Amino acid sequence: MMTEAKNEQLERMRHSVAHIMAEAVQSLFPGAKFGIGPTIEHGFYYDFELSRALTPDDLPVIEDKMREIIAQDASFVRDEISRDEARTLFSDQPYKLELVDEIPDASLVVYKQGSFTDLCRGPHLASAGEARAFKLTHVAGAYWRGDEKRPMLQRIYGVAFESQEELEEHLSRQAEAARRDHRKLGKELDLFSVHEEIGPGLICWHPKGAVIREIIEDFWRVEHRRRGYDIVYTPHIAKLDLWKTSGHWEFYRDYLYSPMEIEGQEYMLRPMNCLGHILIYKSRLRSYRSLPLRYAELGTVYRYERTGVLYGLARVRGFTQDDAHIFCRPDQVEGELVGVLNLVLFMMASLGFKEYKVFLSTRPDKYAGTAQMWEEATECLKRALERLTLPYAVDPGEGVFYGPKIDVKLEDALGHEWQGPTIQVDFNLPQRFDVCYIGEDGSDHTAVMIHRTVLGAMERLLACLTEHYGGAFPVWLSPVQAVIIPIADRHVGYAQEIAGEFRSEGIRVLVDDRSERMNLKIREAQLDKVPYMLIVGDKEMGSASASLRLRSGEDLGLEGLADVKNRIKVAAEARA
Amino acid sequence: MMTEAKNEQLERMRHSVAHIMAEAVQSLFPGAKFGIGPTIEHGFYYDFELSRALTPDDLPVIEDKMREIIAQDASFVRDEISRDEARTLFSDQPYKLELVDEIPDASLVVYKQGSFTDLCRGPHLASAGEARAFKLTHVAGAYWRGDEKRPMLQRIYGVAFESQEELEEHLSRQAEAARRDHRKLGKELDLFSVHEEIGPGLICWHPKGAVIREIIEDFWRVEHRRRGYDIVYTPHIAKLDLWKTSGHWEFYRDYLYSPMEIEGQEYMLRPMNCLGHILIYKSRLRSYRSLPLRYAELGTVYRYERTGVLYGLARVRGFTQDDAHIFCRPDQVEGELVGVLNLVLFMMASLGFKEYKVFLSTRPDKYAGTAQMWEEATECLKRALERLTLPYAVDPGEGVFYGPKIDVKLEDALGHEWQGPTIQVDFNLPQRFDVCYIGEDGSDHTAVMIHRTVLGAMERLLACLTEHYGGAFPVWLSPVQAVIIPIADRHVGYAQEIAGEFRSEGIRVLVDDRSERMNLKIREAQLDKVPYMLIVGDKEMGSASASLRLRSGEDLGLEGLADVKNRIKVAAEARA
Lengths: 576, 576
Prior knowledge:
With 576 residues, the first copy, chain A, is an alpha+beta fold.
């Protein structure tokens, strides 16, 4: 555990290394204009306007210059100067001047080390010699002040740690994360693509990605029916008026697509699946005896996100939620929430996620309904969490506009957090849409709605699974579970025979009958992260067996076909 | 078989009955203004502007007056008059005057019988007494000339036949069709709904409808994978530019929704699934050896249809196509078409359709590509049909803009035709999108695309199945396959036990444990068209059996539980 003090010291060091990098750039690129250079997670960056575009080859040169500066061990000197003095000091630095003019204080703080002076509140190290292990990692373009109408500067990113060991550990973790990046693996394993012609953030699921999705969706459907959910399908568009009645237009507008017109009437792509479910509920009178009703839908929704924040499958403009809405009586809410949480835990375990964090998000600034409704709903969520003795943290003000919620963040194998399941209690939409049931007393009562998704979104889930498993999906999810590799042409028939038998028992198997060398085929199957490779030649044909290899490279030797088949089926059924 | 001559005579009679109805209306509603009165399938209609709205009670009164006119047996007299004479004759008939002014001929033909004269080319019966069996069926509003900006007239519909027997047979067929109407059964069986709040033509699938859809979709997926298809998912929207490149914007505009805007870029809801599949194909280099590639998607598309033509599930604005696109070499086209036709025949047989008609649609007026491309594609389709010795008719000019097609029209149990499977060869989109493969010669060749759907649309299919089976779906498709009805409270435990055991073997079963009378429960299960009812009391509990009833009302008596279970499973597996 990092202590508060150690953390502060590290922040200070990273910020000082940013200044040292700026000094190095100033000396290597005379005439450089400086933007800002804050610390970020694990390190820092600094933005520059330079006479030429930087290449990765520039980074070691800048690093060398930084090491020179550190060896000279100049002190960081704090000074307070007047605005006029600052304007003179930064007279050839237009970005700094802009900042100077925006600081309301009478005197401004600057820090100087060696030949470099920066407008900066500090704090800093005593001297450059105190800088420890660092590395410049990459260069990217960044608009001045994040505004695409302002000039594009060059941003150099770096990381810094107290020791070389910590730096190296971080870099190797980063390298592993890059190897597992779902955007990279998604391409290599042929799982999905995004096309500029269709539009950013809109996903095409390729056959192999679609196999994984279909397996999870089938599993999801069976599990939901088993737990008393009904599955429905509702349209992706609806009249704009419906979204006005619901409050989405008012509270959620920044994420909505512009309306389209049909016969003079405005329609909108749905950002959520709830309204169709409400209308199905309302298509009949419902008695207190018929509740709870649980409508589930693998529903694709469309939400606007700025191009800049889109990220592979993890942040997109169209995604399929494993959505459901539970309509129940107030006395059933807590029990339903416990049921949903149990389903969440079951699903996460089935998918192989052992670590997660639970957050309870409370009332945001913009909200619908009354404070008392929010209070009641929040208490219900808390009691359900406590009944399952699930530890949780409160995320104040992070609820959606219509109710408080529980968010579960999954942790993948590298410790990254992913937004996963969400459970929201809603006392609001039932009022807006007059969602009622006939009580035991014969009169109308307003129902409670629970919105929930136990996987989050199919797109983000695939991203998360890909990175969690580094593309080596568990057997039950592997698009191809086994590749059969005949050693010579005369073994192709035997390979096809095995494939036919395995397929008839639901195993996803391919025969690699290309006229390529066996070692190349094995290597390609390993790159494709296929769990099992069955190599078959004369010996195997003669003994109704196969030489079995795993994607790890492990060679299990000769194994009877029945045993191989059983091994694969057991692994798939165990979802291991 | 109705002969040509008999048909002409019947047409003449129906047209004359329309005139007789107009004469009756003239005499019952003085001051009536007359629109037009053509024959239609089975009968005729006539449009009137009347001083008050008609009710169903008016029809027998008009029929009585018609019978009086027929009894008087006035002759139909043809006359030719000048335009001026016609203008005088119809001076108080504004709609007739409008028609008079539009006829280019110098002299106009009128027909007179009794007190009624109509602008009409004939031919007619010799006299009113030759009219045979007729019946007025209903009244509906109809805009003059179908133009919603013109006045709304009242249209009286009638049917007429040569004999009372034929009339009665027709009426009873109509009554049966009304009983089977999927809009009526859809509501009674709780299969789907359409909501004004969401918008016309946009379908909400209720749990029971969704069960049917899911079963068919699962079946479809298994069957497609077995036949070498890959399943994909692609977005419901794409940049408008993509639809311009494809030609859809140019050729298909009347059916497209208005664009929406995202970050200054226009996007459109997809009317077809093809473009996503093309981009997946193009995401890698494809070799001649890797073809054919068959991408299938249960893809929801949105197409504009006028409100007036929307009809339940049969004609909608958003529907899910069981779509696929086959990318292949020219030498593979015919084989692929044969494969698709075999799949079509298999699917239709599985769903219980025995009758169908096959149409080959050729080049329309608006078309993309060259006439030679169309010629080649059309020949390929013909050869495939001939290889399967499928009889077909040519539908000239009914191809889609990008290629010729085969349409299969299903005939339901009542002889109604439904648009079903479609197979289109496309030599055009591959050129527009440069869809290539690397040939054996190492150079680029343009691939051929086949668009096909073997079910048509999930929405229309449910409509068709509902009417075909009159809501009594075969066991494998029944949302609820069995209802268990305990005779008294003490039998509920036994009923639940059976339900649990049946469910664990995949049978969809409910226990009706309401405190209602047994006969009511049986009647309701029959109305819900549940295939099997298991009634359980003391006798059944004592012998591990159930009293089995079918939805037909047939009582099969006591049957052991294992036999009941087996009976249901065998029926479901046989898809019978």
